[in-house]
């Protein structure tokens, strides 16, 4: 090829490459859709900023695990209230229903039933031809089962037909067979009532250990992916086990499932179950986002770090003892400001005996309810008495997977006022459930322009 033809070829290629382009050859960057942050339902935006974390006055308990230090956290969203029984039941029922639907579809496939046959056939897989399904359609959002490997991965579960729970309305013997496996045996039932076998309500999820992958550059990606399987039903026996020689059977029998307690904070949930709930909430929201063509996926819901929790609890008040300021637990009208144990043996002095509804008492200045009292709250941190000495001053976080002592904050209905202080630290083991520990979730805010350093005293 001579030089003239070569130059002509380069010119044609250049013109073709720039054809239709609006950048005129300039470095203008890739333009995406304009981002409009959407506040998650039931959450408040907590503006990022700096605050004094730890004890601002004398540590009367002499624990000395929270020396004062200035730290900065980024903006995030936080639930206005603790996660309620009603909200957690949505998670439990979603897991239960997903498992039931998968079992129905598998049995329908085995016996050769299709929707036209009625009965269990109505719950058959919606798409038997996996070749035409995208990789994304085979993903957990559509096909979560909770059963582990089944050999039916990639088959689309039918969510369009309602499940039937009244035994009198079961459509056929196959449906009865599947439902029967989800209940305890008849010999374990009493008063004519059959009970769900809650041990089968298991949620499976996976996540990447980003910290481990960042520290160990030689690690393979698949080795940094952690898979978890968690029983999701709360341990209602905590109301009995937490208090020896105390009559709490009504709370054990009714607290989680009865509508009278729907708006009360869920308890009897381990740190591991709280984390699983966060993962489910992300999946549930993104499943909806996926159904709306063109909608962006949302950030993960998660437990707050210890610093985020304390920053949010303070509500913009620097060096305050409680979320409402302090140093007193009563208002100027003589009313208690939170649900706790104000007097030895007198749990009802604050107008509450056990827990109260999640939207009780006055919220703090970030419009967050019960950041002190009602139930203590799990956070995404491991307890180390000396951690404040070595943590970073920007978004400090200490969560050692080998340390099963996980931080709980805020105090509860059975605690004295010391544990209600925004700087007080306590812990429980990750696999332990208590009648006085619940949780709330957070979500990262996209962007960094929302900051606030308050001068309130």
From TrEMBL:
A Pfam family reported for this protein in Swiss-Prot or TrEMBL: FGE-sulfatase
InterPro entries xrefs: CTDL_fold, Glid_motil-assoc_lipo_GldK, Sulfatase_Mod_Factor_Kinase, SUMF_dom, SUMF_sf
One term of GO molecular function: formylglycine-generating oxidase activity
Domain Sulfatase-modifying factor enzyme-like: 43-442
Keywords: Lipoprotein
PANTHER family named in the record: FORMYLGLYCINE-GENERATING ENZYME (PTHR23150:SF19), SULFATASE MODIFYING FACTOR 1, 2 (PTHR23150)
Entry protein name: Gliding motility lipoprotein GldK
Organism: Flavivirga eckloniae
């Amino acid at each position: 090829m001579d030089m003239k033809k070569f130059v002509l070829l380069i010119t044609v290629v250049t013109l073709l490459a720039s054809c239709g382009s609006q950048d005129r050859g300039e470095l203008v960057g890739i333009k995406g859709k304009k981002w409009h942050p959407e506040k998650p339902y039931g959450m408040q935006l907590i503006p990022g900023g700096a605050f004094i974390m730890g004890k601002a006055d004398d540590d009367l308990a002499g624990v000395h695990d929270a020396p004062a230090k200035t730290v900065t956290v980024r903006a995030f969203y936080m639930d206005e209230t603790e996660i309620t029984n009603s909200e957690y039941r949505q998670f439990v029922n979603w897991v239960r229903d997903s498992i039931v639907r998968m079992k129905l579809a598998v049995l329908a496939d085995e016996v050769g039933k299709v929707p036209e046959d009625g009965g269990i056939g109505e719950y058959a897989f919606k798409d038997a031809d996996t070749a035409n399904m995208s990789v994304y359609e085979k993903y957990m959002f559509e096909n979560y089962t909770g059963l582990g490997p089944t050999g039916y991965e990639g088959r689309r579960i039918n969510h369009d037909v309602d499940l039937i729970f009244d035994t009198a309305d079961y459509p056929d013997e196959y449906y009865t067979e599947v439902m029967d496996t989800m209940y305890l045996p008849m010999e374990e039932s009493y008063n004519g009532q059959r009970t769900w076998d809650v041990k089968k309500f298991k949620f499976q999820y996976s996540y990447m250990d980003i910290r481990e992958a960042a520290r160990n550059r030689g690690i393979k990606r698949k080795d940094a992916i952690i898979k978890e399987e968690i029983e999701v039903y709360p341990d209602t026996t905590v109301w009995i086990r937490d208090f020896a020689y105390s009559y709490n059977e009504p709370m054990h029998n009714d607290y989680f499932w009865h509508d009278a307690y729907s708006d009360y904070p869920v308890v009897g949930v381990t740190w591991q179950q709280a984390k699983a709930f966060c993962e489910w909430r992300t999946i549930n929201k993104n499943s909806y986002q996926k159904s709306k063509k063109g909608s962006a996926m949302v950030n993960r819901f998660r437990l707050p770090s210890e610093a985020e929790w304390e920053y949010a609890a303070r509500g913009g008040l620097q060096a305050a003892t409680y979320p409402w300021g302090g140093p007193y637990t009563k208002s100027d009208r003589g009313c208690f400001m939170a649900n706790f144990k104000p007097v030895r043996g007198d749990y009802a002095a604050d107008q509450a005996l056990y827990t109260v509804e999640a939207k009780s008492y006055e919220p703090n200045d970030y419009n967050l309810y019960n950041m002190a009292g009602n139930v203590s709250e799990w956070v995404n941190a491991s307890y180390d008495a000396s951690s404040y000495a070595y943590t970073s001053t920007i978004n400090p976080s200490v969560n050692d997977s080998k340390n099963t002592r996980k931080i709980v904050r805020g105090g509860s209905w059975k605690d004295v006022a010391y544990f209600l202080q925004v700087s007080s630290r306590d812990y429980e083991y990750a696999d332990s459930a208590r009648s006085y520990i619940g949780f709330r979730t957070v979500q990262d805010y996209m962007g960094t322009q929302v900051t606030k350093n308050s001068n309130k005293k």
